[in-house]
Amino acid sequence: MNKAFSIIKTAFVYLVVALAIFMMIFTVISCTTFNRNDRSIFGYKMYIVNSDSMSATDFSAGSLIFTKEVDPSLLKEGDIITFMSQDTDSFGETITHKIRELTVDAEGNPGFITYGTTTGNNDETVVTYPYVLGEYQGNIPKIGYFFNFLKTTTGYFVCIFIPFMLIILYEGIKFFSLFRKYKQEQMAEMKTEREALEAERQENAKMLEELRALKAQLENSKENTENEELETEEAKAE
């Protein structure tokens, strides 16, 4: 029973460590890669969706979407692209919308009319080739909320700091427990050695006492023998 509990406890500790490390790695990744137009992983850029402009058909707020760099001239109607918005209300923001049709802007530059499927309204500005960041490849629903939470102070404490502190506390308790066990074993070993030395001392004292008794016995025997010999000589003299 104790062995099974120890195995479960060890497995739980390793699980907490793995999760904490996993959270830390993904926090670093989310802070340095997500929503960054100049960063990619294996050729994919990742963005956390902040609106429901595409929720009617493809993805909703909180989703983590993946886009891949593409030659804009190969895009067609119905494709979903990520681009740098030039609209008045969202200038400079990263938007992912669907292409309604291919067109050119006022200066004759090729581009796309895009729209969000939830409202169906066209975006204000034609998206020309230089502002296309990539083509939409897929998404993971809702996980963006989690990564946004990880980047907050509360998320850091809940998902990273507290697990690591619990691990440190556990290892500290384990260390002191092992140290106490070592001291107890050391004291028990010293007690055993003292008892062995005491037993040996008592045995030596007993042997010494027996030797003294034997010596006294031999001296008495010798004295008796001498007395008998003296008595015998006296008897002969008479």
Spatially, the strands of the biggest sheet line up as: 1-2-7-3-4-5-6
Structural class: alpha+beta
Taking pLDDT < 50 over at least 5 consecutive residues as the criterion, the unreliable ranges are none
Q: Quickly count the helices.
A: 3
Alpha carbon gap, first and last residue: 95 Å
CATH superfamily of the domain at 43-144: Umud Fragment, subunit A
Provide a concise account of the structure shown.
With 238 residues, the protein is of the alpha+beta class.
Write up this protein.
By secondary structure, the chain is of the alpha+beta class. The chain has a domain at 43-144: Umud Fragment, subunit A, CATH 2.10.109. It contains 3 helices and 7 strands, in the order αβββββββαα. It has helices spanning 2-32, 143-150, 153-237; strands at residues 44-48, 64-68, 80-84, 94-104, 110-115, 127-128, 132-140. A 7-stranded antiparallel sheet has the order 1-2-7-3-4-5-6, covered by helices on one side. A hairpin with a 5-residue loop joins β4 and β5. α1 (2-32) runs antiparallel to α3. The longest helix has 85 residues, at 153-237. The mean pLDDT is 85.
How would you summarize the topology of this molecule?
Layout: H1 2-32, E1 44-48, E2 64-68, E3 80-84, E4 94-104, E5 110-115, E6 127-128, E7 132-140, H2 143-150, H3 153-237
Antiparallel strand pairs: 1-2, 2-7, 3-4, 3-7, 4-5, 5-6
Summary keywords:
238 residues; seven-stranded antiparallel sheet; rod-shaped; single chain; alpha+beta; Umud Fragment, subunit A
